[in-house]
């Protein structure tokens, strides 16, 4: 049973970043940013390796000073994913990074020092063949746009982005990715929507300054989920205040999975805790998820512990268990294939997953036989 998308992803132009291509029909890539000082090569490389292990596909480092700039090439040589240099205020750092081994730079034209300095960066990026992210941020919008609109509203963010795109295109440069970030979820959502209606440049999506876990993940999921379901987004970062940078990567992949924009692993659907449960559902689901850690089949697995929604949900999933009174039935592609005791459920389910490509042999039980097996007497 295939995952479906309520709104088709908007097709954007393609921009190459090292071995990856952003936009078009390519995957929505997951990125993060180091929390280290880039002057610290060992600490920065160590954190990037942690991110790589979590599945991060692009990584950004801050380059605020000359010492950090001097370390860019060394850091790039020690990691395996494309390196993005993040520059604010000092356009000379952007010019310097374009001479180093990074695959992309990120600047905010609103704080880079004015149009002339922005043009210098664009010209050099064009000459070096390096892409750039134009990062428009509600917190550092150009003064004239704040005065025009009264506050950093979506229309102001979009006008800023289109203004900088127009300048770059006038110089013959079009290798751009655009972000329009705000910590206010409705502003971010509307900004990306308006921009996508007016431009086909790929977008990097994020809710900036989302805060600490768990609220930061919830806030990001609300905003980024809505943006993704609107068909928008070509790279994603979940911006969290957390000691474990891998939290950002895990959350981003979960959001892509939940919106069906990028499904890389099985999804387990389970009942909430309630008084209708008649098996130790938490134990079953915990063991299943543990045994699925290295499984990459994009299957929808439903494990339901009562009769109310169990049969229907189990039939709609790729694989499902509908259970009650210590017993259950396993469905595969909507067909009952096995009756099991509670103690057998996990092994039986994993056996079906491990042999997923084999032809389904349906059991002799008809769907109507399910109720007597697991229904509690009235």
Can you characterise this structure?
By secondary structure, this protein is an alpha/beta fold. The chain has 2 domains: 15-258, Alpha-Beta Barrel (TIM Barrel); 267-374, Sulfite Reductase Hemoprotein, domain 1 (2-Layer Sandwich), CATH 3.30.413.10. Helix content is 39%, strand content 18%. It has helices spanning 41-54, 66-77, 91-97, 115-128, 143-149, 154-170, 185-198, 215-229, 246-258, 281-291, 310-316, 345-354, 370-374, and strands at residues 15-17, 20-22, 29-33, 58-62, 83-87, 104-107, 132-137, 176-181, 204-205, 235-236, 267-270, 300-304, 319-324, 327-332, 335-341. The two termini are 34 Å apart.
Question: Can I get a quick summary?
Answer:
This protein has 378 residues and is α/β, with parallel strands linked by helices. The chain has 13 helices and 15 strands. It has helices spanning 41-54, 66-77, 91-97, 115-128, 143-149, 154-170, 185-198, 215-229, 246-258, 281-291, 310-316, 345-354, 370-374; strands spanning 15-17, 20-22, 29-33, 58-62, 83-87, 104-107, 132-137, 176-181, 204-205, 235-236, 267-270, 300-304, 319-324, 327-332, 335-341.
């Amino acid at each position: 049973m295939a995952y479906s998308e309520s709104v088709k992803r908007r097709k954007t132009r393609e921009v190459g970043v090292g071995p990856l291509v952003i936009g078009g029909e390519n995957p929505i890539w997951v990125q993060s940013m180091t929390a280290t000082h880039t002057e610290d090569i060992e600490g920065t490389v160590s954190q990037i390796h942690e991110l790589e292990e979590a599945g991060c596909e692009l990584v950004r480092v801050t380059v605020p000073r000359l010492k950090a700039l001097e370390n860019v090439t060394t850091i790039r040589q020690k990691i395996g994913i494309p390196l993005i240099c993040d520059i604010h205020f000092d356009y000379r750092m952007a010019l310097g990074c374009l001479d180093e081994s990074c695959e992309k730079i990120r600047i905010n034209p609103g704080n880079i020092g004015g149009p002339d300095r922005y043009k210098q960066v664009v010209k050099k990026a064009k000459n070096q063949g390096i892409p750039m992210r134009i990062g428009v941020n509600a917190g550092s919008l150009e003064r004239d746009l704040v005065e025009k609109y009264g506050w950093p509203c979506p229309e102001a963010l979009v006008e800023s982005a289109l203004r900088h795109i127009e300048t770059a295109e006038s110089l013959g440069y079009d290798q751009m990715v655009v972000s329009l970030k705000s910590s206010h979820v409705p502003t971010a959502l509307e900004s990306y929507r308006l921009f996508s209606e007016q431009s086909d440049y790929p977008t990097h999506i994020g809710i900036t300054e989302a805060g600490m876990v768990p609220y930061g993940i919830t806030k990001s999921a609300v905003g980024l989920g809505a943006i993704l379901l609107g068909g928008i987004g070509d790279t994603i970062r979940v911006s969290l205040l957390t000691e474990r940078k891998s939290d950002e990567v895990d959350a981003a992949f979960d959001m892509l999975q939940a919106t069906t924009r990028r499904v890389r692993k099985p999804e387990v659907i389970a009942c909430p805790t309630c008084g209708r449960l008649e098996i130790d559902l938490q134990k079953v689901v915990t063991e299943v998820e543990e045994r699925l850690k290295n499984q990459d089949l994009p299957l929808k697995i439903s494990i339901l512990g009562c009769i109310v929604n169990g049969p229907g949900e189990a039939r709609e999933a790729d694989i499902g268990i509908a259970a009650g009174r210590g017993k259950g039935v396993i469905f595969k592609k909507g067909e009952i294939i096995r009756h099991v005791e509670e103690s057998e459920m996990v092994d039986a389910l994993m056996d079906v997953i491990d042999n997923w490509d084999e032809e389904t042999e349906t059991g002799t039980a008809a769907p109507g036989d399910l109720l007597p097996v697991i229904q509690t007497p009235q």
